[in-house]
Structure formats: structure tokens, C-alpha cells
Amino acid sequence: MPIFYLYRALTTLGGPVIDVLLRHRQRRGKEDAVRLGERLGYPGLPRPPGPLVWTHGASVGEAKALLPLIKSILDQRPGLSVLLTTGTVTSARVVAEALPEGAFHQFLPVDKPAAVRRFLDHWSPDLTLWSESDFWPNLMVAAGQRNKPMVLLNGRISDRSHASWRRHRGLAKRMLSGFSLCLGQTDRDARRLAEMGAPQVACLGNLKCAAPPDPADPESLTQARAALGSRPRWLAASTHAGEEALAGRVHRALKTRFPNLLTIIVPRHPDRADGVAEELRGQGLSLARRSEGWPEPGTDIFLGDSMGEMGLYYRLSTIVVMGKTLVKMGGQNPLEPALLNSALLWGAGMTNFTDMALRLRAAGAAREVADEAKLTEVLGELLGRPDMVADMAKAGRLWAEGEGAVLGRVLNALSPYLDPLGPPTPDAHPRIGRSGTDRDG
Predict the structure, then answer these.
(1) What residues pair up with 127 in beta bridges, in sequence order?
(2) Domains parsed from the chain with CATH numbers
(3) For the CA atoms of 307, 310, 315, 321, what is the dihedral angle to 10 degrees?
(4) What is the pLDDT of residue 426?
(5) Phi, psi values for residue 170, rounded to 5°
(6) Residues 105-114: b if buried by 16+ CB within 10 A, e if exposed
(7) Is 237 helix (H, G, I), strand (E, B) or coil?
(8) Of 31, 38, 62, 403, which is the active-site residue?
(9) Contacts of 301 (CB under 8 A, 6+ apart)
(10) Cα–Cα distances in angstroms (integers) from residue 212 to residues 90, 94, 121, 342, 389, in the given order
(11) Model confidence over 40-73: pLDDT tens digits?
(12) From the CB of residue 311, how many other CB atoms can be counted at a distance below 10 Å?
């Protein structure tokens, strides 16, 4: 039996188990109880009249990368509607206020045939724009069978995923055969998509480079800068377990040279903040939490335990160490701090953004540190050399701003699929600029 049919049978017979798992996730806060029906394919809204473009981004990063594209599509073709689906509660909360008029959010249905059928029957999209690598066999095959164009945007095939799909070439080809065009983030991603069976591939750049950085509340930013003053500081951004303790040890090592040093630590998951605070205090470090106000002059660690304020934290330091790289878990996207004039450092675990990382290092905007000792050494060098930090930050900002032209290229590639749904207005032009890239927000 071909693996797709085996998968389909298992997800059909296992439907009740999937429902139980969904409710378990709901109890843990990982599903929206009010909108749980959407995960089972039941619509939370009526379908708007006229042509509908369906866009999908798995989580926060993917969804944010789609926002400039969605805005440009609606600017150019106001007669269209855009549905954005995501799979996480956090992403739904982030995009809720960011979507422009004409666009709306729903949760992606779980990948069991009945849920997929309900979803597609109701929304009946005229064009599907899928992003990155959130591949769900039942959903993608069923959507492809409806004979409406599908385009993969920002396709990313990691080394691990590539090895897995090579073992299941038939399933990969079955999923990708419904796409009219697959755009890889990098040339390597495009080649891998072609190997997997995509009928037409290209590389126009990384769409995440067109996304503006998160804003910062001006009042909070002013208060924070007043509290921090001219203290030397660095930011450990989006950290994971093990990295906070490492940052604490680095702080202690550097404090002998920089007695007024402040280390800002922002865990990727704020619900870990209590444990992180206890761990750092156990090292003898004084600590302040964002949820309790701003740090006092003698505070060692400022713990960012709030949601939705990365734009604020990035603007508070011109030296940023990317989390999820010191523990070799893949890394976080370095584009946003680059746009906000930060010198960048990361560990050997930066494997999720290999191409971007290589290009930022080649531009002189970033450095890789092999271990804790090297991080301490390089941070000490940068803290003592503001001129070097400024040069790295400028190089990163110029590189990131130059990459923003990818949005115009992607919009041009989508024109053959968008034009039949609604021709662009006479004065339409791609929205390729950014706003809010300065550190003042």
C-alpha cells in the first residue's frame, strides 16, 4: 500500500484519538477553547463573497513573514479577501491586530480527512499560498485535487527533513504535485524541492526579509531607557533551557571588567520565567523582572518575562546574542535585531537559518562563538569597543534592508495567479519599503 493511503487510513481510524489529543492540548492552554471547532474544520466565520486567497503560516514567525505580502495583495487588489491560517494560539494572538481590512484569521484544521473536507468545502479558496515546510499530507493532497492554483512560498527543507523525505519520495511528490510553483528560501531549498518532486521551482529570496521588525510602545521604551541609562549591556534573546544559566555565568565573568554591566535575558517561552529567575538567583545574581517594573541601578539581570515585547527588548541593546544556538537547537531568526541596528552573536547551533547567518557574517554584521569561553571573550571585546559594535550594527542593517526587495519579486511571481482573480488597480505598486526599522520604534 502506498504510504499516503496508509497515512490516510490511520488518520481516519485514529480520528477519535486526535480529538482527545486536541482536548488535552486545550487543557494545557495550547488550543483556544472557544475556537476549538476550527481545528476540526468547522468554520468560525462565514466565507466572504468573491475571490478568496488562502495563506498559511504555521506559527508566529511564518505568519509575520506573510503580513507584508497580505497587505500588498489587498492594496493592489482590494476586491479580494485573504484568509490566514496558523496552528498555534500565540500566532493567532499576534496576527489578530496586525491583519489589514479584507483579511481574517482561522486555525488550521488537524490533518484528518473529515476536518480537511469540512474546511475546504466551506472556504473553497481560489488560490492557496502555503509557506515554509508545514506539510500535512491529507490537507495538501486534498487541496491539490480541487484544481485551484497553489504556490509554496519561502519553502524550507532542513537537512533533517530532507533526509526524511528522501525515504518517502512517493509521499513528498504526491503532496508537492498540486503546487503550480514552489519558491525556496535559498537555492539549496529550491534544489531539494525539485528532488522531492515539485514540478516548478525557483528562488527569489527569503520572504522573512521583507517583514518589518516588531514595534515598541514609545512610553515603555522611554521609561526603559531612562532606567537603564548608559549602563553597558547585552541581550540574550529567545533563550532556551540551559542558555539562561550560561548567560548568568558569562555575566559574572564580565562583571569584574564592567562593574555596571546589565544582562538582559528574554526566554523564548515566558512561562519558564519563574524557574529561570530561581536559577539565576541561585548564582548569586540580583534580578529584576519586566512584569514587576524596570531594573534598579545595581541589578545584574533584567528578565524579560512579558509577551509581545521583543521589539522593545531588541531596542534596548546594540549587542544581541541569539538564543537556541548556544544549546545547538537550531537558532532563532537574526533578521529583526539586524534591522534594529544590533551587532549579532550566536553559537554553533545556528542551523535553522544557515544561509542568512552566512551572509550576515560575510557582511561583517555577526560573529559565531564556539563555546561559553569564546562568548565571554567576544562580548568583553565588544563591550569595550562601541565603535566596533556600531560598524557591525550598520553592516547588518544595510544588509537586511537590501534583502527587503524580495517582496516585490514574490509579488511579480504571483501575478499570473492573482490577475485572474482581480486585476491590480491602476496605481498599484509593490509595498517593498519598511517602517519602524529605527531603534526608536
Answers:
(1) 53
(2) 21-209+405-418 (3.40.50.11720), 218-401 (3.40.50.2000)
(3) 130
(4) 76
(5) -60, -45
(6) bbbbbbbbbe
(7) strand
(8) 62
(9) 247, 248, 251, 262, 263, 264, 265, 280, 285, 286, 287, 288
(10) 19, 14, 34, 15, 22
(11) 999 999 999 999 999 999 998 899 999 999 999 9
(12) 19
Cα(379)–Cα(250) distance, rounded to whole angstroms? 9
What CA–CA distance (Å, rounded) separates 217 from 335?
20
What the block records as the C-alpha cell of 46 is 462565514
Distance, in Å, from the CA atom of 67 to the CA atom of 81, rounded to the nearest integer, reads 14
Q: How many CB atoms neighbour CB 176 within 10 A? A: 24
pLDDT at 434 over 50: no
**β-pair partners for 84:** 55, 105
Contact 53, 82 (CB under 8 A): yes
State whether residue 52 is helix, strand or coil.
strand
Sorted by sequence, the CB contacts under 8 Å of residue 123 that are 6+ apart come out as: 43, 47, 52, 54, 83, 106
Greatest CA separation found in the chain? 67
Nearest alpha-carbon partner for 182 in 143, 218, 156: 156
Tens-digit pLDDT profile for residues 290-348: 999 999 999 999 999 998 899 999 999 999 999 999 998 899 989 999 999 999 999 99
Give me the percent of the chain exceeding a pLDDT of 90. 86
Question: Would strands 343-346 and 366-368 be described as parallel, antiparallel, or unpaired?
Answer: parallel
AA letter at 420: P
Output the nine-digit C-alpha cell for 203.
528562488
As a whole number of angstroms, the distance between CA 180 and CA 189 comes to 17
In angstroms, rounded to a whole number, what is the distance separating the alpha carbons of residues 236 and 341?
15
Distance CA 314, CA 329 (A): 21
Amino acid at 220: S
| 360 grid coordinates | 550576515
**DSSP three-state, residue 88:** coil
What distances in angstroms separate CA 312 from CA 34, 106, 206, 304, one per listed residue? 30, 28, 24, 10
SS3 content of the chain, % helix, strand, coil (to 5): 45, 15, 40
Residue 426 has φ and ψ, to the nearest 5°, of -55, -35
Is 62 a catalytic site residue? yes
Report the alpha-carbon distance of residue 134 to residue 57 in Å, rounded: 8
List strand residue ranges (DSSP E) for 78-193, in order.
81-86, 103-107, 127-131, 150-155, 181-184
Packing angle, helices 187-196 and 169-176, rounded to 10: 100
